[in-house]
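Supplementary Methods, section 5.1.

A reviewer requested that the exact input to the structure prediction be made available. We therefore reproduce it here, unchanged from the version used in the analyses.
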Amino acid sequence: MNYEQRINKIIDFIGEHLDDELTLEQLSSVACFSKYHFHRLFTAYTGLSLQQYIRWLRLKRAAHQLIVNKDRTITEIAFGSGFDSHEAFTRAFKQICGVNPSDFRLKSSWKAWEKPPYSLPKRERENMNVTIKNLPARRLAVLEHRGDPNKVGDSVNKLIDWAKTQSINLKPEPGEAFGFAYDDPEQVSAEDFRFDLAITIPKNLKLNGGIVGKELPAGRYAVAIHRGSRENISDTVYGLYRNWLPNSKEKLGELPCIFCYYNFDHEVAETELLTECWLLLK
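The structure derived from this sequence is encoded token-by-token as follows.
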């Protein structure tokens, strides 16, 4: 393996073991680097020290937990993020996003978390692995986000809050939460951006509170897996359209590209996020 491949191997390992005590000896062994050079090599490729990188991953996950898991105290989230006190967590959190965790929980602003303060090596382009799946129909509870793509997180929170008020447990199983990507935020103005957020629900559930019912049709879908941060999911989406579709002899159905979520930012490190990109086929 070359150096970039070794660094990528470490990035994967850290994401998979973010809650473990990660030691220099362990990580240098995984990467097959000398422990005397590991820190310099890691910093040379990412721009951050190893501890800064791990802290950023834990704090970003904690930011999502502050909004999604409002029943957990800030102290609980701090300990779960590897900090030994509420005060240490607050200092580190405020250093990155400019506000303390309690203020962030009341009025979240994701701008500070949108672009990581590091530059991981780009993975070597792999041949896109696309499978065709026959998927069943689903009834969905949908929150239609319209407008500024930077406020999609607010709409996510509204859908979560609505789900928590229902008399039945609507927490989606992996693969039962969706995003309907009508527009590329890089290609349309903020006011024209459209994105539907959806979870699977029972057929007889009555909807209210600005949540609408829609049907995800049964059919044949082309499925590509996107691993890691969803901030660069467009690489996978455009790979489907540009690289796979022209050679597939398939024709697209009347649905936008759909994101099928298997986990979420408040549950895992962003390197461990798993999303399927679906295209309905005729």
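The beta strands are 130-135, 138-146, 177-181, 194-200, 212-216, 219-227, 257-261, 274-280. These observations are discussed further in the main text.
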